[in-house]
Write a structure and sequence with these properties.
homodimer, Uridine Diphospho-n-acetylenolpyruvylglucosamine Reductase, domain 2, Uridine Diphospho-n-acetylenolpyruvylglucosamine Reductase, domain 3, 4 domains, 7-stranded antiparallel β-sheet, 18 helices, globular
């Protein structure tokens, strides 16, 4: 029972779709952030659920680790095969299987990306709203319980996955959920798999909730004298029940990044980027209500964008935040992190993060989906500089501690992956033992994305 | 290790709050539907989480079944101690622990009821929207993943429980979730416990999402020549993206029930009962848009209610559907059942249910939260009449089969409890084995609400 034996059997099963070339292994071992190159032993390219089931049966028999791979846009190394074995590349399973326009849902394979899905949906007048910025795959987005800019209005993957098909550790294929909008039957395995980072099963099909493309859409930006003013404006907006479609905070460092990376030409002050969805009258009413709140906090420099191309330019810039943050640290890598706090604690958390970065001598941006209380810090690091890496780690830990102290969570959307395992016990305490019990019950051999999310027992003991 | 030994220990722990009187046991063995009286061996009245933990530790050591008890409004016998042991009456843990108005959430104990919670919230301008009709307890509503009339707008308990505290089988206290609106850390134990019918842990605290009381609210009713017209109006309304707060279907039999029970004086035709929430202008816009759709399907007999007392009278009548259905069968009990289907299949499902009732010679109402594709049938039965009970069971099974055939679920909100275990394998197939694995991992002694939800293995085998 070895990885080599599994690869030999998989090669027989998949032929040329089981690849062990250096180039392909290297590609699948890369990541967008600071984790070192981690090539798997082989890459498998299944084309059907039945093939995924056969692959899992072989790897189960041979005790061979399997790490699912989508768009590789995860930010905590979730797709890296840290214990070797097979990188299960789902990108060939990228079809839309059905669009049920009448029921506002679509059935898709996990390899389809967010942008490709919305391209295919365009003619139907419907769209899939969850937008983490990166052109992530649906399987990966479900795996990390992704959210992003529109979650404040439409929810995260948690609210937008109705049902799943998944292949379990031994190759068993299960279906969770139905096409009905709700159900009270049985344990909620859909929501157990969403956010499980590929450690409980391989998602092979998703039924997703869709939304009607709104009759009217408008975007706007404005700026504030201080980050507190900007955040307090957000807090009051959410508390007022305004159905914001997007409400994004950029701190002055993030704006500097956009100026460098995208020649944005914005004053280096805290900004809010906004989007409103609704009927024409509804959007006008929302914009007026928001402007009234924002002006109380001294908002200036209003720009609005109602034409699609202007809005797209705005959000394209916003979506380049990762690269714009990286641009601040010439030649460095980016250590991105995120937390989510109750919205009443948002100003405290953001200011604390800014102060921590200064105190630790780090260059960091802050940008966030602040309507949810969720924000990112992007620290420029040189992975060769042990001292800087240690300070970046201290920053991340301090930010996580801040979030927990304020009643929040150590990640709103990036997940745990490799980077935040030491925080699991801090956040979840005795509940971690029940997560371990589920992992053991579903994957007793520990072959599904091993080394992710659940901390090694030694680490858990040390943290106690 | 016996139930008697557990009761003796619990008596020492709780004193007068461990009750074995015939009267109290009988009270806790009753139910709203057709299940026979099922008294527990004893009733425990804990007042703190620490006491619940001690109770579970004792019952775990003694292998004594524990069945949580809230408002006893469950419709599939979830609160009945079918294997004896202790009925864990949570009604003394009924406090609001915190209202975080700024964060739109509240922390409550499980014994508080829906109406009591909203009374306490009134001064804050916030409300808890989930409304299953019955004045259920929050713990019970989470346990059965309840929803009701407003789920179409605000979601079910699945969407409205942010975090939980729970006591597990051996007395371990865990916390799941945080006060942040979203998180990507760890397995989603909150959603695993929501809907688990008390079989995985005892909920001792809930953090609930709240909503701002809308600036304007209006209610309306109208009627249609056929149930198809009414349902097709609902389908188009939902597909148009109108943010309905309530959209309820009553078939002609249900209207007859209201006329008998509440002297409603309504023509015995299919009706829709509606509610609109929003700004004043928004509500007016929504009502006009709905009226335009409804008139295309021949809606007549419009009545509107904008004053609070008129709206309350309307929804009080709607909430009496259980008793109004019972009124149709003089001296009989009610066998209520529910299913949920994709909305495009709603007309097919409703008409099939009506036809099945006629075919089987049964008196049944249909009333439902049709915006979700969810509806109830209420069959009048005499539990002494074996033939009628067999026909009612055949009706329930046929309705469940219809729902599954149309891509739906065998229960949208009543749950599985005692009554629908034989349908678990039909709906979930191989996934049931993974539910069993979770149950085994969390409660290896099987003391938490035994005999509920998961079918006995013999039944599961027979169903294959």
């Amino acid at each position: 029972m070895t990885i080599a034996a599994a690869i030999a059997e998989l090669s027989t099963l998949l032929g040329a779709r089981l690849v062990t070339s250096q180039a392909d292994r290297t590609l699948h071992g890369q990541n967008e952030t600071y984790y070192p190159l981690t090539p798997p032993d082989a890459v498998a390219y299944p084309e059907t659920t039945a093939e995924v089931s056969q692959i899992m049966a072989i790897c189960h028999a041979q005790d061979c680790p399997v790490t699912p791979y989508g768009a590789a846009s995860s930010l905590e190394g979730q797709h890296l095969a840290v214990q070797g074995g097979v990188s299960l590349d789902m990108t060939r399973m990228n079809r839309v299987l059905a669009v049920n326009a009448e029921d506002l849902n679509a059935v898709v394979q996990p390899g389809i990306t967010r942008i490709a899905l919305n391209e295919e949906l365009r003619a139907t007048g419907l769209f899939f709203p969850v937008d983490p910025g990166a052109n992530a795959s649906m399987g990966g987005m479900a795996g990390t319980r992704a959210s992003g800019t529109t979650a404040v209005r439409y929810g995260t993957m948690r609210e937008n996955v109705l049902a799943l098909e998944a292949v379990m550790a031994d190759g068993t294929v299960i279906r969770t959920g139905t096409k009905a909008r709700k159900s009270s039957t049985g344990y909620d395995l859909t929501h157990l798999l969403v956010g499980s980072e590929g450690t409980l099963g391989i998602i092979t099909e998703l039924t997703l909730r869709l939304q009607g493309i709104p009759e009217a859409t408008a975007a706007a930006t404005c700026r504030f004298a201080s980050v507190q003013d900007a955040v307090n404006c957000v807090i009051l907006t959410i508390q007022s029940g305004l159905p914001m479609a997007r409400i994004e905070l950029l701190d002055h460092m993030m704006v500097r990044g956009f100026n460098l990376y995208a020649d944005a030409g914005l004053p280096e002050m805290p900004h809010l980027f906004l989007e409103f969805h609704g009927s024409k009258a509804g959007v006008a009413e929302q914009m007026a209500s928001f402007a009234e709140i924002a002006e109380d906090f001294g908002a200036t420099g209003w720009r609005t964008a109602t034409r699609a191309e202007d809005r797209n330019a705005l959000w394209k810039m916003r979506h380049s935040a990762h690269y714009a943050s990286a641009a601040l640290g010439k030649g460095k890598r980016l250590w991105p992190t995120d937390v989510c706090v109750p919205i009443s604690q948002l100003a405290t958390a953001v200011v604390q993060a800014q102060d921590d970065a200064v105190r630790l001598g780090l260059t960091s941006t802050i940008v966030g989906h602040v309507g949810d209380g969720n924000f990112h810090a992007g620290v420029s690091v040189n992975p060769e500089d042990a001292d800087e890496m240690a300070r970046a780690e201290a920053f991340t830990k301090a930010l996580a501690d801040t979030a927990l102290r304020l009643g929040g969570t150590v990640s709103g959307e990036h997940g745990i992956g490799l980077g935040k395992q030491s925080l699991m016990n801090k956040e979840h305490g005795p509940a971690v033992a029940y997560m371990r019990a589920i992992k053991q019950a579903f994957d007793s051999k520990g072959i599904l994305n091993p080394g992710k999310m659940l901390p090694p027992l030694a680490m858990a003991k040390a943290a106690e």
